[in-house]
Amino acid sequence: MTSPAAYLWLIPVLPLLAAGISAVLPRASRRWAAGLAIASLAAGLGLSLMAFFATVGTASHGAVAHDPRNFPWLSLGGEAVRLGWVLDPLTAVMLVMVTLVGLLIFIYSTGYMAHDDNFTRFFCFLALFAAAMLGLVIANSLLLLFICWELVGLASYLLIGFWYRQPSAAAAAKKAFITTRIGDLGLLLGMVWLYHETGTLLFYDDGRGCLEHSALTQLATQATLGGMGLSTAISLLIFCGAIGKSGQVPLHVWLPDAMEGPTPVSALIHAATMVAAGVFLLARMYPLIAAHPVGTPAETAALQAVTWVGAITAVFAACIAVAQNDLKRILAYSTVSQLGFMMLGIGVGGVAVGMFHLITHAFFKALLFLGAGLVIHGCHEEQDIRRMGGLRRWMPVTFATYAVGMLALAGFPLVFSGFWSKDEILHAAHGWPVSKVPLYLGLVGALLTAFYMTRQVCHVFFGEWRGGNGRTAGAATPHESPPVMTVPLAVLAGFAVLLGFLGTPAWPWFQAFLTGEELAFKPSKLFAWEHLSLLLASSCLALGGMALGWWLYGRRPLDSAESPDALAMRWPAVYRVLAGKFFVDELYEATVVRWHAGWARVCDLLDRWLWGGAVLALQGIAWGLSWVSKVLDEFGINLGFDLVCGRVRRAAGLTATLQDGRLPNYLRALALALALLLLLLTWGVKG
Amino acid sequence: MNSVPLLSLLTFTPLLGGLALLFVSPARSATARRLALAVSGLVLVLTLVMLAGFDSRRADLQFVERGAWVPTLAVEYFLGVDGLGVTLLLLTALVTPLALLLSGRVEERAPLYHSLVLFVQAGLVGTFTAQNFFHWFLYWELSLVPAFFLVRLWGGPERGPAATQFFVYTMVGSIAMLLAFLALFLATGRFNFPELAALAADGGLAAAFAGKLTWASLSNETLALLVFGGVFLGLAVKVPVIPFHTWLPAAYAEAPSPVTMLLTGLMSKMGVYGFLRILVPIFPDQLRAWLTPLLWLAVLTIVCAAAAAFAQRDLKRLLAYSSINHLGYCLLGIFAALRATGDDARLAAEAVAALNGVVLQMFNHGLTASALFGFMALLERRTEGRRNCDDFGGLRQVAPVFCGLMGIAVFSSLGLPGLNGFVGEFLIFKGAFPLAPWAAALSVLGLLITAVFLLTLMQRVFHGPLNPRWASFPDLTTGERWLVGPAIALLFVLGVYPQVLVGVFDATITATAGRLAP
């Protein structure tokens, strides 16, 4: 049997076909669209699992095996631009995650979107989204990755703006596309630079790829602007793309607004597809980012940049999440913060650390978003957590699964996956030789995460029902959702718990799988002081955060939706800044957006007045010249001519009067002339 | 091999068709329409026949037809195409019938309208095939006159000044170019492009000028520069390069949309074609001497046109500026490619990539911009000429197919991978970044601003709540879907498998780049 790598291309192509077919299906064929999308992803899951099991155990001598398949796409002047796909553990892990989470979200969507008019179109876009992400995952060429990367952006644009009739949704879609495109410009430049320097964009190509030894050595040793290593400069440009896509500070502003899309879309964006792409890009390009000449510290400038951006984002977004009241917005900021953790993990600990958190986060964040969707559905499209409360009585399944997700995100000790993956990151940060600040930022982030999640759960599920004011009683009662939506939640909840045990320090199977290192079962490692101390610290912080949240919000639930926040009563100024999201949007509005509009106006005015004015001036000069020549013509040349003509004519008139045809006059003139002639002759003779 | 004079046939078919149309009675507009379509269809068939016989592995001129015309003045009837010419002929053959099909509503003096469109096509075909300046210039001007009348007679409310400015502006450029070529002829006694290029490759034009041309005791180099300046002006107005572009927004906006399709899709390509056919082979030294300012001009064209597009409210003006921006990338690619030298094989390869990108971008922009103005034609039909972007809102609700298909064209224009626009831009940047890093790095801003204004267009016209005035806005009819469908399909084909087209011109472009960096 041939290797599953040969069939890998089918995994993105099947959903792409599903998207293509449902794009031309009439609006009424809802079953077909949903069926095609789900079937294509289910088939993709099957293939992904085959590929996954084929890669297990292929590592040897501490290095993972890459199985690339390349093909020429364009040929220019005898050189071919080649694309391709690759099967390696990183690809395999991502494929399984994306297809599995995606499939569950698709199934859930059939219930969630059942009443939408554009159901068919929705599944078309969902399938396109999944196809683009899967293509990105299998790509063995930065160019193919970039192509899929942009298509992911397109699909997110279409889905965020799915309810395009709302101006806010249309604006959010545009904002998402444009903000991520800012980062993409860096990625594009990094890509063409890398292409020029290495002559290829293939990652793995039997030793000639740009992520393989010879190319990396060359890139790491060459210096460019300001003595910066070439690999560092290119990595930083590529990192710009990841900042945009993964919502890192300062390009995080689009992600919370992306909540305007339907909830399954939010789940897809936040868990499986869109934002994971940025972290995945870094994981894929890690050999380049970490490339350094022999004898220099392993913490390259690019890795440090990744670390710092990640750590700052982790805390920054967690702070904002503390003071939000929109159910989905809290989750959105928590995603930004968790993505920061992943970046931090990649920066300090490498691919395995960051990717482990990416995978666990994908499951519990999808769980939380889908749960939030049920809450919103059950509360009749209410999203304000102050107008909820006591939902655990009406929605027990939702509550149970949501609680699992929340505990995983908050890092509740030992049982939940989030705890183990976050601990890995903190552990790596602890061992980072450059600075300890990222570790402290990470710890603060962990504390805040536990706190705001507890606040949210207290508001939503505990206390008394505060919604439905002023509405009819029947419509206002929250209700549980049908199994088509709750079963996917239960499955995700199972993974949110179990996945953690694949990557504990005692048995780091996941890390070994990704890095190709030897795997050993060493429970004693857990009790070594360097691990234990951090485990204890992060447990304390998680529990402390939850306790603090309970003390502030759970002990005395809100009386009504209008009563002020417990935090706002104590520190109103701080709360205002946090609720205002540090006013980053306002800052951009006042600077970048305004500068852009101003620049556009300047260009327009330049066009109208400077360039257009120059043309008008030339035109004026031309007019002036022609006027002068006209004047010269009429008064100089013509006038003289006319004068002469007039005089001639007048003279002619005078002479004409002489010839009036009367014989006596002629005779008289003749006589006169004769007399004169005679006089003249006599005078002449005399002289 | 020249049993059939294919290129002459290709030129004279629309010319004779246009003449024949002049004899159709103005009352019989349907006949005129059918006749014009048949003629442009015939041109398309002939072009495809030519394409089938074209050997894309060769870089030299093919289907050559030569005959003496005015021997004393070195004027020859000299036709021939290489990969570049074939590509643009194909574009011409594709866009013209599309424009004719979309001008269905022309009732007033329909035979004249259709005849003028065919004259424009004849001028374009001639421009892309002629290899002798005299004869090339005839067609260059021939395409301008009917275009002027098309704008002047069928245009919007401000058509008078727009058409005049368009004509006079382009004419000034043309005269400068004519004078320059006369000087070139006086100095070299040649009018044929290949011979002039060979002369330039041998020792530069300045040497050829030695002792042949004296004017106000200027040095040979200065004279050569002046001649170059004249040709550059003529081409720069046509492309256009900022700051020689002010005729364009008004002309594009006031022309009827199908005519704008011809202006932006085809006539703007004449300028870039001229750069590749005349300036780059004949004046490489002069171009190199002025490369830095020229690169800045390209950056200015890209960034300022994009920014100015953002400030427009009239959709057609917005798309007009977007056209300037897209052609700016072509200029960037050409100028960057001139930086390559023979010493560095890797940089020479980048020049090949950049120039390939330029030709691809020409074709892609021709297709995409024509499609976008085609949608404008369909929009104006439904709104009685209203096209301010604040007039609309929420049209997607009533016209989802219209929105979807136009959305595809918009995303192609902003360079989304998977659609055609991306490939050309990628190749240009791949080549231009190593050759001219700063110019390329600044130019990517254009990509961003393009996304901003095009998505703003989508947002204002199609999204948000439905403007009640357009509650009965009709979606695309089946006929209209069949009309734009093939064009949209082509956007996908060229985006996914660009090799179909690149294969046609790659050999020619590789040879061009090879001559640049010997």
Structural description of this entry:
The complex is a heterodimer of chains A (687) and B (518). Chain A has helices at 10-24, 30-55, 89-112, 119-138, 142-160, 167-198, 213-221, 230-245, 254-257, 263-272, 274-284, 286-289, 301-322, 327-349, 351-378, 391-394, 396-410, 417-430, 437-461, 473-476, 483-498, 509-515, 524-527, 529-554, 566-570, 572-579, 584-658, 663-686; strands spanning 67-76, 79-87. Chain A has 687 residues and is mainly alpha-helical. In chain A, strands 1-2 form a two-stranded antiparallel sheet. In chain A, a hairpin with a 2-residue loop joins strand 1 (67-76) and strand 2. In chain A, helix 19 (437-461) packs parallel to helix 24 (529-554). Chain A is elongated, with a radius of gyration of 39 Å. Chain B is globular. The longest helix of chain B has 39 residues, at 345-383. Chain B has a domain at 290-518. In chain B, 75% of the residues lie in helices and 3% in strands. Chain B has a two-stranded antiparallel ribbon. By secondary structure, chain B is mainly alpha-helical. Chain B starts with 5 loop residues before the first helix and ends with a helix.
